[in-house]
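Q: Structure for this?
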Amino acid sequence: MTLLEKINPAGVENMIRQMAESLKLQLGSDYQSAKMLGIKTGGVLVAQQLHEALKLEEEAGELNISFYRDDFSRIGLHPQVGASKIPFSIEGEIIILVDDVLYSGRTIRAAMNEIFDYGRPEKILLATLVDRTGRELPINADVVGRSMDLPHSHQVKLREDMSLEISQR
Amino acid sequence: MTDIKPQQAITKPDIMRSAQRDIQLTDAGDLKHFLTIEGLKKDRLIEILDTAESFAGANGKAAKKVPLLRGKTVANLFFENSTRTRTTFELAAKRLSADVLNINVNVSAVTKGETLLDTLRNLQAMQCDMFVVRHSSSGAAHFIASHVEPHISVINAGDGQHSHPTQAMLDMFAIRRNKGDFSNLKVVIVGDILHSRVARSQIHALNILGTGNITAVGPKTLLPQQMRELGVHVRHDLDGALVGADVVIGLRLQKERMRSALLSTEDEYYRSFGLTARRMRLAKPDAIVMHPGPTNRGVEIEASVADGPQSIILEQVTGGIAVRMAIMSITMGNIEKSLAAKPGVQP
């Protein structure tokens, strides 16, 4: 694994601030009543900062998507990351779904399944820190921190200290 | 056709022990059957408890079902009656989106071995993916696991006097949820320890999880000194044993034993070993009371204790579904993973 590029936490924070501005535009004046869900574990980190920037009324929730992953038949049950924590009702709400990297789109498909287990939202917006090419499902983000056109051999990883690393296998 | 050999439950040759451990695991060392807790590593038990925690969290969902075992068929093979265990296994399988077959098999002693294998072959021909087995013979689940095709997972739902590992895991789940860490706990198990597969599995699980003090209490006829080999304190006075207890587990007294020479009368048993409110005051004020059910009120436990604020008996039942969902999805997932790693072997 060779490190090709590293975006430091300040750079990531900048990206998230831009995402917040874009979300305000898309949601209109009532944006603070929207509910936010971060996908474990990277999406939760992004959601924390995004939530801070938007100052939403309700605290952000966490989604565990391991029960809806479509690779059960290849890799078994995914290592556990704990249950979903959704401190609000989904029914009729506008949900901002947050993840760190959007790639194949399969995680988002699984996340939407999980959300619908809790109710029928009015609308879901997808906000992702990185949008990289390579979609395998018809899913697109509404708000993107940065788009990247990377070959399959590259890996994008958000570290816990909120730095973003792009490396080559 | 070989018949099932009852195993020496307490003392077993080491070779048997290692053979049992291997059959539960895939080549990569992951759990593919769940037959006994004995010999499993601590992190395996923790994995089950953590996974169960995720499923338990899903109880707040409007839709309780997840698609992990969609397209799989689970056969509940019950050679011995049990309502609670079978229904919680059935619910667990259904919440994982599996199709469930409930098969109650009454076997005559003579044709037991043949019938069992015949039943198995038929179920395999119907493309079942998991067998949940309850049998009155110790070792039945092992026997089945050693005869099934590689894509099938076998879960022991109680075999003879040997083991009842899913019950023990749901008990560990309930203890962890109420008490957290195991290392500082004093756990008292009272009743017919000798004949109890539940107690045996609980003791193995508590030991593996590092419980500080496990005390087994019962009449001398139902609690032989050899139980010390399992790493427990053996006592015959309940009052003394209860002092400082954090967790008190009552076992069901099987009434049929009353007719044998092992016990005198229900009244006398209750006087000496009944979990009464008065006795519970000897335990720590925040002690919890557990029981695998069904309870014989007035025989092994006083009604006011079974239904009282310290009792977590119903919580055990609820947690049992999450724990069984965890075990089923872990073993089935590991089988899928191991078959995916071997090209040419199709499930």
